[in-house]
Design brief:
This protein is mainly beta.
């Protein structure tokens, strides 16, 4: 008897597994390979950008705003700075070799720095001004901020934008992509006076330490499994998934800038170049100097108050000074002890110490009475004469030309190239930069 048995054949189809890579936030060296640590990269804990946790974005400690629209019209640039992502995006500074994220090698081409203003709030990046392109109202009425992503060249807006993070900005091993803090862009910051009335519900005090802790802008990573909702063109205020833990950077003025509004002065005229006569090293060593005179003119509202005292809600005090605006010159002068409290006594060559640059010499600035002036090493206000600030009427004279409530004040100064005591004078060129500054205190 032939018995037929039913054979059931099961066909099993093996489908390929799809790996969905997910970027991770790196907070310890356990997420780094030995190859990456050997290359000099580090990892450490970072919290993310909670409110009030932004660093100092490099603006002057005091920003002056004239109460007169005719003297200072809307659109006037009040201050600017370049905010380093490394040092300014968080109160706890990052380092350029600090790894912030790790992603799969397959994620190359899908990694983006995304950035926007904080459109979550009306006074911190939601309301664009009507008179300045891509500038947004701040909590201080009449003042707007504009942020520019330096690597892309684009202004921040209330809507997310992206810039691809490319292979020359990250490092890899055989398995992963590692994204360091240096991959993210610095931000150019501009502060403007605005006449826009799109937003008017902020602070209007004549003296205001910026105490609102909302950020003006954010920067973070968008990649597989990381901040995926932050898509280009979406409003930040409605799309902020991942905030705050996986966002490493914010840019804010919180507790670092004081706005003072009142009658003020502006620099009217100054020489772009002051040429000093050539002088020999032997003459300098014998105590001789090379000098040249120059004039500075200010336009001042007639009600401006000349003083180095700290401004208050009822007194906006105006002072002037000469700012050494090259960090290398500040560092060199400080190293030589050419200081007076927080100020400097001498202006040095921008490349002091380099080949072909004269050494052992510096430039001093004298007022019309022959008094040597201290120079500003930064725009920090209220440091007085020892820090480089002087009441503007102490250094200038009224020209008696008051028109429409504005008067010209002119000061006569002398730039003097001199040997530095205790230093050896060597021959070479001297090319130094100095900026005249006038500001509320």
């Amino acid at each position: 008897m032939l018995k037929l048995k039913h054979f059931i054949t099961c066909l099993v189809l093996a489908l390929p597994m799809v790996s969905h890579a997910t970027c991770i936030k790196v907070t310890s060296t356990s997420s780094l390979s030995s190859e990456i640590t050997a290359a000099g990269y580090i990892a450490k804990s970072w919290t993310g950008v909670t409110r009030g946790s932004g660093g100092n974005i490099g603006l002057p400690s005091v920003i002056s705003v004239s109460s007169s629209d005719s003297f200072m019209p809307a659109g006037t640039l009040l201050a600017s700075s370049t905010a380093s992502f490394i040092t300014a995006a968080s109160t706890t500074a990052l380092t350029s070799n600090q790894i912030l994220y790790r992603c799969a090698l397959a994620d190359a081409g899908s990694l983006y720095e995304v950035y926007s203003t904080q459109s979550y709030t009306a006074y911190s990046g939601l309301n664009e001004t009507s008179d300045i392109e891509s500038a947004y109202h701040t909590f201080y009425n009449g003042v707007a901020i504009r942020l520019t992503n330096i690597k892309s060249g684009n202004y921040f807006s209330g809507y997310w934008q992206s810039r691809e993070i490319t292979s020359d900005e990250y490092v890899t091993d055989a398995t992963y992509i590692y994204i360091p803090a240096s991959a993210f862009s610095d931000v150019y910051v501009e502060i403007f006076k605005t006449g826009s009335t799109v937003y008017t519900a902020g602070n209007s005090a004549n003296y205001y330490l910026f105490a609102n802790n909302m950020a003006s802008g954010f920067s973070t990573l968008r990649g597989p499994g990381m901040n995926a909702s932050l898509s280009d063109g979406l409003l930040e205020g409605a799309n902020y998934g991942g905030w705050f833990a996986t966002w490493p950077g914010q840019f804010a003025m919180y507790n670092n800038v004081t706005f003072v509004r009142g009658a003020m002065c502006l620099v009217k005229d100054y020489p772009s170049v002051v040429l000093l006569p050539t002088i020999s090293t032997s003459s300098l060593n014998n105590g001789e100097v090379s000098q040249s005179n120059f004039d500075i003119s200010l336009s001042c509202e007639d009600s401006a108050i000349s003083s180095v005292s700290k401004s208050t809600s009822s007194s906006a005090n105006v002072a002037m000074g000469f700012l050494v605006n090259q960090s290398t010159a500040v560092t060199a002068a400080t190293a030589l002890g050419l200081t007076s409290t927080s100020g400097l006594t001498h202006l040095l060559d921008t490349n002091y110490g380099s080949s072909g640059v004269a050494s052992g010499v510096g430039i001093r600035i004298y007022d019309e009475s022959g008094n040597a002036l201290n120079l500003l090493s930064s725009k920090t206000a209220t440091t007085g004469n020892t820090g480089g600030w002087y009441a503007y009427k102490d250094l200038t004279t009224s020209q008696g030309d008051s028109t429409d409530g504005i008067t010209t004040y002119t000061g006569n100064f002398t730039a003097s190239l001199e040997a530095i005591s205790g230093e050896t004078v060597t021959a070479g060129s001297v090319n130094a930069q100095l900026q005249v500054v006038v500001s509320f205190q």
